Automatic annotation (TrEMBL):
PANTHER family: SEVERIN, VILLIN. InterPro entries: ADF-H/Gelsolin-like_dom_sf, Gelsolin-like_dom, Gelsolin-like_dom_sf, Villin/Gelsolin. One of its GO terms (molecular function) is actin filament binding. SUPFAM superfamilies: Actin depolymerizing proteins (SSF55753), C-terminal, gelsolin-like domain of Sec23/24 (SSF82754). CDD domains: gelsolin_S1_like. One of its GO terms (cellular component) is cytoplasm. It comes from Cucurbitaria berberidis CBS 394.84. Coiled coil: none annotated. GO terms for biological process: actin polymerization or depolymerization. This is Actin depolymerizing protein. Residues 63-144, 199-249, 326-390 form the Gelsolin-like domain. SMART domains: GEL.
Length: 395
């Protein structure tokens, strides 16, 4: 079923009887901007005025600044908003004196976040975009499949268990505490495009079944820290593990022991994690990674969302590697499935209905293309495209 099916109003419904006609109008944007102008998180005199990185967590429907010392650390029971603002000149050179701020907004959804937290993050992302006068690129990020763009912002990403209480429900997860054994898995980002230095740190269940010989693990027992190096782990994983251990030992002075899997003494970690009957040298340690690269399809596709013919239509424009800038027209909205991610491009002259319907089309498209469920989703407006978008179009 085409993704635009079911998106039209029932025949008996007359949009002129409501305020639907005002969606994306000047009045609509002014009202949303006024709402954004009252949000304390955006009104610190810096957001939207200076380049920088800003992170907020959703707590009881509120946007709460995340401590800078925790930037790069996220809890899987929460939702976050991340703003990256960079200054460019007219030629696209970063850090120029004649500043034009380019904004990327990510709303990051933990694997165990609640629906109300995720909904608040999405709503507040739109509000933040209004505060930035619609100039931002909006990204939906899933914990289970971090995009290359997000990995470049946080090349040392750390994902922890636990979460805050929500207005409707409570994330029923064990909160991390000094009295609970913590096992951290250190591994490379699953996408090669993110770069070999993009390393993730993910808290996993403290069990020997969580061990994998391709990665490095950090076991924090409270009174001692063990580093277990799988026999096929990468040098960058060892380096990142050393940095994590350094951070852990700043707050508390405990012994640290580094053990390679090939050493007989590394069995002490396996034993402590419940693997007393495991033969260290005959066992092959393999555990699925908690995050993965999204399924990449072979064929890139470009679709157009347009009501120029009177009815809303969603049609395939072109597929393959011949897609270029010339295929985008400013009177419509386009969906680009690059194989690695989904991009929405909004033309300046797109109709109000086209602009209002793009999110529904993305949702339908993802349900239609089941292997696209884990793809990152980003939306850009004509004239505010960044390098990542044009790379996705022309790659």
């Amino acid at each position: 079923m085409p993704p635009h099916n079911g998106l039209v109003h029932p025949d008996q419904y007359d949009w002129r009887d409501s305020n639907v006609a005002l969606i994306n109008s000047d009045i609509d944007h002014k009202v949303k901007y006024q709402s954004a102008a009252t949000e304390p998180a955006w009104n610190n005199g810096v957001v939207g005025a200076e380049p920088g990185l800003f992170v907020w967590r959703i707590e009881d429907f509120e946007v709460v600044p995340w401590p800078r010392g925790k930037y790069g650390s996220f809890h899987e029971g929460d939702s976050y908003i991340v703003l990256l603002s960079k200054s460019f000149d007219g030629q696209g050179r970063e850090g120029a004196e004649e500043k034009k701020l380019i904004h990327d907004i990510f709303f990051w959804l933990g694997a165990h976040t609640t629906q109300d937290e995720a909904g608040t993050a999405a709503y507040k992302t739109v509000e933040l975009d209004e505060f930035l006068h619609g100039a931002a690129t909006q990204h939906r990020e899933l914990q289970t499949a971090p995009s290359d763009a997000f990995a470049r912002v946080f090349p040392r990403l750390k994902i922890l268990r636990g979460g805050v209480k929500s207005g409707f429900t409570h994330v029923d997860l064990d909160e991390v505490s000094p009295h609970v054994d913590t096992l951290l898995r250190v591994f490379q980002h699953p996408s090669a495009a993110a770069g070999r230095d993009a390393i993730l740190v993910h808290e996993v269940a403290p069990s020997w079944q969580s061990l994998d010989e391709q990665d490095v693990f950090i076991l924090d027992k409270g009174d001692k820290i063990y580093v277990w190096q799988g026999k096929q782990c990468a040098p960058m994983e060892k380096l990142k593990a050393a940095q994590v251990v350094h951070d852990l030992t700043i707050a508390k002075h405990v012994d640290v022991e580094v053990l390679a899997q090939t050493e007989p003494r590394s069995k002490v970690v396996v034993d402590y994690l419940g693997g007393h009957d495991v033969d260290l040298f005959s066992m092959q340690f393999h555990a699925p990674r908690p995050v993965s690269a999204a399924t990449e399809r072979e064929v890139k596709k470009l679709f157009r969302l347009s009501d120029a013919g009177g009815d809303m239509a969603f049609d395939l424009v072109k597929e393959g590697n011949g897609i270029g800038k010339e295929d985008l027209h400013g009177d419509d909205v386009f969906l680009l499935d690059s194989g690695k991610g989904i991009w929405i491009w909004e033309g300046r002259g797109a109709s109000r209905a086209e602009k209002a319907m793009w999110l529904q089309v993305v949702q339908r498209y993802i349900s239609w293309q089941q292997d696209a469920a884990d793809l990152s989703v980003a939306k850009v407006k004509q004239g505010n495209e960044g390098r990542a978008f044009w790379t996705a179009v022309e790659a």
